């Protein structure tokens, strides 16, 4: 079945709100496309101004993180209904930088994924192995574990609408993009894992992105793979190059 590609930018901790608005305005004409879903995941403080700037365009403004409680004494966190109240439909969950620097675990990722679905926000669920894990030959086992825990108690109906981002940690921000074969192999294994947890229809529906040093030159071949349904793009999403990535064909 044909899955619509989804190409998302992860701005990470870059751009002040006014710089963010300028970037949305700059990229707006470049990322125009009827063929793919386009998402800019921006720092929380820039979500509202970016939404305003993106009005009338095909750009969806998403969040980079969200907490798994509804409200309360969680200083510094952003609740799901704060996101939905301003129209956010996508949130990145469990990025490797959150896992590494902010102590996120497979269990907190699972709580956040469930909470996002409760609020009808599409989670972009991140997974990915370290260089040591790849060298030790445990990549697929490790990714399967991350996926199985992330989707605990998530229904097939919900999972079918999710986005998974496969981001090998060694390829993030390093300029070292995984080979097309490596990326396709793991994305295919993720789809098999989803078919085992749920069924083939769910596996056929779920969208799986590749992320890690995606550039205008690597995107066309990566996105042509059978199990790669788009990309989660860091550095190159902050540049006019992102327009080329979106219009990779
Ligand atoms: O972490 C990433 C996207 O979430 C990838 O970042 P880069 O594209 O900068 O390698």
UniProtKB/TrEMBL annotation:
<comment type="pathway">
    <text>Carbohydrate degradation; glycolysis; D-glyceraldehyde 3-phosphate from glycerone phosphate: step 1/1.</text>
</comment>
<feature type="binding site">
    <location>
        <position position="213"/>
    </location>
    <ligand>
        <name>substrate</name>
    </ligand>
</feature>
<feature type="active site" description="Proton acceptor">
    <location>
        <position position="167"/>
    </location>
</feature>
<dbReference type="GO" id="GO:0005829">
    <property type="term" value="C:cytosol"/>
</dbReference>
<dbReference type="InterPro" id="IPR020861">
    <property type="entry name" value="Triosephosphate_isomerase_AS"/>
</dbReference>
<dbReference type="InterPro" id="IPR035990">
    <property type="entry name" value="TIM_sf"/>
</dbReference>
<dbReference type="Pfam" id="PF00121">
    <property type="entry name" value="TIM"/>
</dbReference>
<dbReference type="InterPro" id="IPR022896">
    <property type="entry name" value="TrioseP_Isoase_bac/euk"/>
</dbReference>
<feature type="binding site">
    <location>
        <begin position="234"/>
        <end position="235"/>
    </location>
    <ligand>
        <name>substrate</name>
    </ligand>
</feature>
<dbReference type="GO" id="GO:0006094">
    <property type="term" value="P:gluconeogenesis"/>
</dbReference>
<keyword id="KW-0963">Cytoplasm</keyword>
<dbReference type="InterPro" id="IPR000652">
    <property type="entry name" value="Triosephosphate_isomerase"/>
</dbReference>
<dbReference type="GO" id="GO:0006096">
    <property type="term" value="P:glycolytic process"/>
</dbReference>
<keyword id="KW-0413">Isomerase</keyword>
<protein>
    <recommendedName>
        <fullName>Triosephosphate isomerase</fullName>
        <ecNumber>5.3.1.1</ecNumber>
    </recommendedName>
</protein>
<feature type="binding site">
    <location>
        <position position="173"/>
    </location>
    <ligand>
        <name>substrate</name>
    </ligand>
</feature>
<feature type="binding site">
    <location>
        <begin position="10"/>
        <end position="12"/>
    </location>
    <ligand>
        <name>substrate</name>
    </ligand>
</feature>
<dbReference type="GO" id="GO:0046166">
    <property type="term" value="P:glyceraldehyde-3-phosphate biosynthetic process"/>
</dbReference>
<comment type="subunit">
    <text>Homodimer.</text>
</comment>
<dbReference type="InterPro" id="IPR013785">
    <property type="entry name" value="Aldolase_TIM"/>
</dbReference>
<keyword id="KW-0312">Gluconeogenesis</keyword>
<dbReference type="GO" id="GO:0004807">
    <property type="term" value="F:triose-phosphate isomerase activity"/>
</dbReference>
<keyword id="KW-0324">Glycolysis</keyword>
<feature type="active site" description="Electrophile">
    <location>
        <position position="95"/>
    </location>
</feature>
<comment type="similarity">
    <text>Belongs to the triosephosphate isomerase family.</text>
</comment>
<dbReference type="GO" id="GO:0019563">
    <property type="term" value="P:glycerol catabolic process"/>
</dbReference>
<comment type="function">
    <text>Involved in the gluconeogenesis. Catalyzes stereospecifically the conversion of dihydroxyacetone phosphate (DHAP) to D-glyceraldehyde-3-phosphate (G3P).</text>
</comment>
<comment type="pathway">
    <text>Carbohydrate biosynthesis; gluconeogenesis.</text>
</comment>
